[in-house]
TrEMBL record:
Parts of the chain that traverse the membrane: 32-53, 65-85, 97-115, 189-218, 225-244, 316-342, 363-385, 391-413
Name of the protein this chain belongs to: Probable peptidoglycan glycosyltransferase FtsW
Catalytic activity: [GlcNAc-(1->4)-Mur2Ac(oyl-L-Ala-gamma-D-Glu-L-Lys-D-Ala-D-Ala)](n)-di-trans,octa-cis-undecaprenyl diphosphate + beta-D-GlcNAc-(1->4)-Mur2Ac(oyl-L-Ala-gamma-D-Glu-L-Lys-D-Ala-D-Ala)-di-trans,octa-cis-undecaprenyl diphosphate = [GlcNAc-(1->4)-Mur2Ac(oyl-L-Ala-gamma-D-Glu-L-Lys-D-Ala-D-Ala)](n+1)-di-trans,octa-cis-undecaprenyl diphosphate + di-trans,octa-cis-undecaprenyl diphosphate + H(+)
PROSITE patterns: FTSW_RODA_SPOVE
Composition-biased stretches (Basic and acidic residues): 448-465
Renumbered residue ranges of the record's region Disordered: 441-465
Pathway it works in: Cell wall biogenesis; peptidoglycan biosynthesis
């Protein structure tokens, strides 16, 4: 009987752990530390996997196995600089920068689409690699090269849309409930971005759509607006898919519509899929996942990345991770993205400033939606769209912009009311504030509600006395 009473009195392991977890999450800066830890670990995993996927090929090409990872490390360093800068910028500066970032992205997208359209019309000729030149400017599908600098304007468009859209909606305030307030200027700019981005990249257009949905959801827009957005988005995707048969983007006039083939390949059974067509990448990616099993074949020991899985270091790096680290490695990456999503939406919920709340929700929606679309395409649950996996896939523009977005989230986390009070109550040394981040401003105290004014009304005439 005594043993039974002891067993009943002893709390279970889950009941012992949950108070500790709740205690850690209740700390003022828990959102900040969760965000930094998840993004930092994803970046380290990405650098490791890019080296694993490119070392042998780089050695065979130029005798230096570290050439590709060196380039990726430079972009990671630039991303950390962008993180540091955005973490230090106040909200008023970010709101001012939004229109300039978005305007620059629209101009670069117009230039990129113009060069690709002139290539499709045979006004400009492309070289053997598909690069079209116009003086010092070069274009190749999603990439625009200005001199020796390459950039993806669509990545810059995401960041610009976050800052400008959050600023516009925050300024409208309660007037956002009226349809005409959304119609101008938000919807025309969104429609223009859909056309400019979707001309070359339907996948990025879907991420933009998810970003805008997250922005409007955080603003409390009515559900019928989302229905209208969904209809317009599907109509736009249909038009862009049809335009591929006329040479839009990387399509060829009169050839098979490659966008339809890529978007519908995941619906076909593997035994009925054309190995030499759009299903090749999907089949090779699944083969790499099957080879990995539960614990993987070992880091760097995967064989299918050497010429079998196309874009092994970019779009399909998740399949290489599954082959070398197995289900365990994939679960770790999923858990890190889950922590990133939790911390991002927690920051949005706890932010007192409307701009910070809207921007945090849209950034988190953007990163999570892109990760879901990429991983879903690799495992065969969603269409293949060619999107990189945030923080992990090789690439410069995507990594730098994603790190800048995380830097803004970190700034918003430090500006949470409880976090701001805690940081100002025990301020760090001056050199730490100069090197890392300044103290966030203290939230304004809540004013007590004013007492209602007593009014006396004379019966019959309704005049105040």
């Amino acid at each position: 009987m005594a043993d039974d009473r002891t067993e009943k009195a002893r709390p279970s392991l889950s009941r012992q752990l949950l108070p500790a977890v709740h205690g850690l999450l209740a700390r003022p800066l828990s959102s900040y530390y969760l965000l930094i830890a998840s993004a930092g670990m994803l970046l380290l995993i990405g650098l490791t996997m890019v080296f694993s996927a490119t070392s042998v090929r780089a050695y065979a090409a130029n005798g230096n196995a570290f050439s590709d990872i060196t380039s990726q490390a430079v972009f990671a360093l630039l991303g950390l600089v962008a993180f540091w800068v955005c973490q230090r910028l106040p909200a008023i500066t970010l709101r001012t920068l939004g229109k300039y970032v978005l305007g620059t992205a629209i101009l670069l997208l117009c230039l990129l689409d113009l060069l690709n359209a002139l290539k499709g019309l045979h006004v400009l000729q492309a070289d053997a690699n598909g690069v079209v030149r116009a003086g010092p400017i070069k274009a190749n599908l999603l990439w625009l090269y200005l001199g020796g600098i390459g950039i993806q304007p669509s990545e810059l468009a995401k960041l610009g849309m976050v800052l400008w859209g959050a600023d516009v909606i925050a300024r409208k305030g309660p007037a956002l409930g009226h349809w005409r307030e959304l119609a101008m200027p938000l919807f025309p700019v969104v429609g223009l971005l859909f056309v400019l981005v979707g001309y070359n990249d339907v996948g990025t257009m879907l991420v933009l759509l998810a970003l805008i949905v997250g922005l409007l959801w955080a603003a409390g827009v009515r559900l019928r607006v989302f229905g209208a957005l969904g209809v317009l988005g599907l109509a736009g995707i249909g038009l862009l898919i049809a335009a591929a048969s006329r040479g839009a983007g990387s399509g060829t006039d009169g050839a098979e519509n490659y966008r339809v083939a890529r978007l519908t390949a995941f619906l076909k059974p593997l035994d009925k899929c054309d190995l030499d067509g759009a299903c090749y990448q999907l089949i090779m990616g699944r083969s790499a996942i099957f080879e990995g099993g539960w614990f993987g074949v070992g880091l760097g020991k995967g064989a299918l990345k050497w010429g079998w899985v196309p874009e092994a270091e970019n779009d399909f790096i998740y399949s290489i991770l599954a082959e070398e680290l197995g289900v365990v490695g994939c679960t770790v990456v999923l858990a890190l993205f889950s922590v990133l999503a939790y911390s991002g939406f927690r920051i949005a919920r706890r932010s007192a400033d409307p701009f910070r709340r809207l921007a945090a929700a849209s950034i988190t929606t953007w990163l999570v939606a892109q990760a879901v679309i990429n991983m879903g395409g690799v495992v065969g649950l969603l269409p293949i769209t060619g999107l990189p996996l945030p923080f992990i896939s090789a690439g410069g523009s995507a990594l730098v912009v994603a790190m800048a977005a995380v830097g803004m989230l970190a700034s918003f986390a430090r500006a949470e009311p409880d976090a701001a009070r805690a940081l100002n109550a025990r301020p760090t040394p001056r050199w730490v504030r100069l090197v890392w981040a300044p103290l966030p401003p203290l939230p304004s105290p809540r004013r007590p509600a004013a007492e209602p004014v007593k009014k006396s009304v004379k019966a019959g005439d309704g005049r105040r006395r």
